Amino acid sequence: MVQRPDHVPAELVREIDHVFGADFLADPFEAFAALRDRRVHWSPVHGGYWVLTRNADIREAMQRPDLFSSRYTGIPAHVSRTEKLAPLEMDPPEHTAYRRVIAPLLAPKAVAARVAAIETSCAELVDTIAPKGSCELVADFAQPFPTRIFTNLLGLPPAEAERFVSWNNLLLHSQDKPEVRREAGIEINTYLRDLIAERRREPRDDMVSALLAAEIDGEPTSDPQAQNLCFLLFIAGLDTVTAALSFCFRFLAEHPGHRRLLVERPELIPGAAEELLRVHAFINPARTVTRDTEFAGVAMREGDRVLCSTALGSNDPEEFPDPLEVRFDRTANRHLAFGVGPHRCAGSHLARDEMTTALQLWHAAIPDYEVTPGETITLHAGGSMGLDRLPLVWGSR
User: How far is Cα 70 from Cα 383, in angstroms, rounded to an integer?
Assistant: First the structure.
């Protein structure tokens, strides 16, 4: 907790803790929705930060890197790390040079070449799970599925997926254990460094080799640059799809009418994936004000932190009629689940393909399921929200 700065009006101060707050750990979407009574708040938690609540303001902040820097994208910021995570923590033009390297590797054409691997990985998991009559969706499906795709992109055998799942949990979901996170980060980077050295000696048809063959600002990609990019892809590619699947399947498990609609009309699945991403937008990036300015009707000072919650932006009633109503046929679904502006998710095409594949193959094999009665569902909040576990059951019990 910090003291209110002089430029922050007293009436805008509200104790908001989107990382550890009990209300956010119970239902983060409801907790964010409760903030709509004002256009902007200022919270004294985590060093102090502004919270924008309107879609238009959040969208503008994301599109204005000159005014809202991405140097530290988390609240609280990991200020102990001096190296910027490329290109996530960079602003144009530095950001642009790195983005040009990874964008082609995740473009629709590149994703299309991976469709067979995506379908095979998903089908194998579903075929294993379906006869059991129950599962813990996060551990049994939502984590291993995108992790298998990630290891495939890196040209690694499927058996390596389990190791990456473990690292992912330690790195991203041990927010109260900095030493655990630090050790996991060291292990991941050691692994990636060895992998890059191996691909440097013997290139293959995989993403690591493609990164090493690319150029950044006209210069060949160095090993440290490739390692930085691979580390970002690890963070961005695993946990995000896991979180999206966990929220989507919980909703469908608790809303049989919507679930039956997908079973009876699978052509609705692409639109359903977009709508479920919108209503459960789970990324809460931060920006840092680069100069004194007036924004969202308040005076902001250079160095102020600003939370740009995609949950608030994607469920704004000024942008989406009846935002809490899940409509699979919603048109003009300009949600912010993938962000907007220079830092819009480069892997959105891959994520969409994973989401639609999961919904199609799962519901073809397991059309009726529910949350296991009596089970408690917990979740994590913060910069990337998601369920910790989701026990499901189907068939005779």
Answer: 14
